[in-house]
Amino acid sequence: MMQTGVFGQMARLMEMVDAMMTELGLADLSVNERTVLMAMSACATRDVDGMPVSHTERARAHRLTRQISQPTFHRNLRRLMDRGIIGKADGLGAGEYVIVSPRAPTVEIPAALDRAALGQQAAE
């Protein structure tokens, strides 16, 4: 079944992101944890030891996190820190965090996403 139109394209993009999150071991993140991680990643401005550095003020102002309250943002930031996905490093200022990006596996995303095929690819 071919997906057409803008909603079909959006669905395909969401399936691709879901597959990537699974491959990176991030599938069990909550929606808010994913949102905070993506906003922090989008706002990263420099590197420390090859890891991107982001500031909470910029991430809080990002369009992805506008609907998340400050306490919810920081609670989810703490959860990401507890998992080792976001962390502090020596020499960083207040509110600055490094994003510990996992090494991306070499997975080819097929033109037509098929959950069974993706599951088989992940198992290999």
Task: Please sum up the structure shown.
Helices cover 48% and strands 11% of the residues.
3D architecture notes:
This protein is an alpha+beta fold and 124 residues long. It has one domain: Winged helix-like DNA-binding domain superfamily/Winged helix DNA-binding domain (Arc Repressor Mutant, subunit A). It has helices spanning 5-23, 31-42, 56-61, 70-82, 115-123; strands at 46-48, 51-55, 86-87, 96-99. The protein has a four-stranded antiparallel sheet. It is globular, with a radius of gyration of 16 Å. The two termini are 26 Å apart.
Summarize the SSE layout with pairings.
Layout: H1 5-23, H2 31-42, E1 46-48, E2 51-55, H3 56-61, H4 70-82, E3 86-87, E4 96-99, H5 115-123
Antiparallel strand pairs: 1-2, 2-4, 3-4
CATH topology (fold) name: Arc Repressor Mutant, subunit A
Describe the biggest sheet?
A: 4 strands, antiparallel
Q: What is the spatial order of strands in the main beta sheet?
A: 1-2-4-3
Contiguous runs where pLDDT drops below 50 for at least 5 residues: none
Please identify which CATH superfamily we are dealing with.
Winged helix-like DNA-binding domain superfamily/Winged helix DNA-binding domain
Give the helix/strand class: alpha+beta
H/I helix tally: 5
The level 1 CATH classification is Mainly Alpha
Mean pLDDT: 83
Helix content: 40-55%
- Which CATH architecture? Orthogonal Bundle
Number of domains: 1
Number of E strands: 4
Using only C-alpha atoms, the radius of gyration works out to 16 Å
Overall 3D form: globular
Q: Please report which band the strand proportion falls in: under 5%, 5-15%, 15-25%, 25-35%, 35-45% or over 45%.
A: 5-15%
What series of H and E elements makes up the topology?
HHEEHHEEH
